[in-house]
Amino acid sequence: MTNPLRFATIPELRSRLDRGETTPGELVRLAIDGLETIGRDLNAVAATLPNRAHPDVARLNRRTVRSLALAGIPWGAKDLISVKGAPTTWGAPPYRDRTFDTDATIVTRLESAGAPLVAKLSTIELAGGWGYRYPNASLQGATRTPWNVNHWAGGSSSGSAAAVAAGLVPFAIGSETSGSIVTPAAFCGVSAIRPTVGLVSRHGVMPLSWTLDKAGPFARTARDAWTVLRAIEGYDPADDSTRGRRHRRLAELPGTDHLSSLRIGFAQADFDEYASPPAREAFATALRDLHRLGASWVHASLPTEIPYGAIISTIGASEAASAHGDLIESDQFQLLVDAKQKASLLAGREIPAHVYIDAQRARRHVIRAFKTMFASCDVIVTVARADGAPPHDAPLDMFSSASATDPHVQPNNRAIVPASNLAGLPAVVVPCGFTTRGLPVAIQFVGPAWSEPTLVALGEWFQSVTDWHTRRPPQPSFDGPPYPRRPRSQ
Fold first, then answer.
1. 241 an active-site residue?
2. Residue 41, in any domain of the structure
């Protein structure tokens, strides 16, 4: 029988710790055992860190455990977050044996919160490197969603989402440049927050795109993700992209009265045309559930004339090629797994400066478009991904959808992921059901900069009237191998 602690929320674990029904050491052992069995077979684990976690637990005292929300709660870090003395490979063969001698700011803040770090979790090599074709572009291979191991967990924060979905850690940290939090959260049926750019320090996190990168939490519920976000947000002198000391921390979550007065923007075409047929009933049910809030609903759609994909690709490819210039020019470059990714990084080196500057200027049109949209609504709701997870062994370009600028489709927000990343806006993702094939799907709430409290409160309200976040994927116990064993890298 599955240990009930594995799928407990942070408040439930906090209550058990406070009552003495479990200990931080027991939670760490449970997490590492699961990561070394199910986690390895899902290809979700880059390395377990017992030598880090057990001393973290030993430093906790009773007073600390009872006073801090995350004290004694184990967690995992995407393997592009540096951890002192631990492998930090960025998912890439050239860095297979690389370690750092310092912790990322996220790691030190969660250590201060009393949360023991138990694992580095798998990622697509170089977090995608701005263009990859196959889900197996990683040292660990393609990470599987625990809902169906024949399907992908999503990239590039695949290990973080899969580990939470499988009940291996209560929360994990991932990152997003354009979709790498939203997508795996949707494919794995977990909650997540992509924060406003500048809210969470990126010091010690592998750079892919200096103007687009963000780090944020995956968790069982929107409230759990919020608890983690509060522990890692805030000014960091080591990262000048974070908000200065003069800025206050995020406000507390608003109440239901505030939510019922919201103006929720949406485009019906997102749910009727963009959503795949196997997912449409789940999304339709989610809309009906959201209408129970009593908020106002207004049409809100992105302008169709802006080439969102071209803008973000130009900026992202240019910045990725700069961030990884030394690798591109070295003999190690050919060790990367994915041919498309290598071609994209090389192409990024060839983008002229004036083209990059033109893309940055065009980015202002995207920011102004959102400003116009948020003049008539407070939050936008749309699908996180149009369908459930694709097969883990299929090329990803087989699943591309019609262009957001196709003149034959109705006004829509299908470009919301690249557009909102260009604008640096936050999003909250919550599971909302399953496709007819049994794969999870999710909706996302997108708001203006620094609107995380409203988005999280809306996600929490949705989870108070639905139970999708409580569903568990089919899993065996730890007594035997959960899936056919694959060779492990040393």
1. no
2. yes
Reported pTM: 0.95
Q: What is the pLDDT of residues 418-457, one digit of tens each?
A: 999 999 999 999 999 999 999 999 999 999 999 999 999 9
C-alpha to C-alpha distance for 137 and 142, rounded to whole angstroms:
7
Q: Cα(327)–Cα(322) distance, rounded to whole angstroms?
A: 10
pLDDT cut 90: percent of the chain above it: 88
The predicted pLDDT at position 40 comes to: 96
Q: Based on the residue annotation, tell me whether 78 is a catalytic residue of this protein.
A: yes
Domain of 90, CATH number, reads: 3.90.1300.10
Active-site hit among 160, 180, 318, 451? 180
Q: Which residues contact 200 (CB under 8 A, 6 or more apart)?
A: 106, 214, 215, 216, 229, 232, 233, 242
196-218 pLDDT tens trace: 999 999 999 999 999 999 999 99
Neighbours of 409 (CB within 10 A): 16
CA pseudo-torsion sign 114, 51, 146, 421: positive
Catalytic residue (choose from 78, 120, 214, 342)? 78
Does residue 395 lie within any of the structural domains?
Answer: no
The crossing angle, in degrees rounded to 10, of helices 50-59 and 24-34 is: 170
Report pLDDT digits (tens) over 312-338.
999 999 999 999 999 999 999 999 999
Active-site residue identified among 122, 156, 158, 160: 156
Q: Annotated catalytic, 209?
A: no
CB proximity list for 42: less than 8 A, separation 6 or greater: 143, 144, 146, 149, 153, 162, 163, 166, 483
Count how many domains the chain has. 1
Decide: 98 and 47 in contact? Cβ < 8 Å.
no
Residue 30 inside a domain? The answer is yes
Residue 298 domain-assigned (yes or no):
no
Helices 222-232 and 105-112: angle between axes, nearest 10 degrees: 110
Hey, which residues does 99 pair with through a beta bridge? 87
CB count in 10 Å sphere of residue 343: 13
Q: Is the pLDDT of residue 91 over 90?
A: yes
Which domain range does residue 27 map to? Answer: 4-255+427-433+442-470
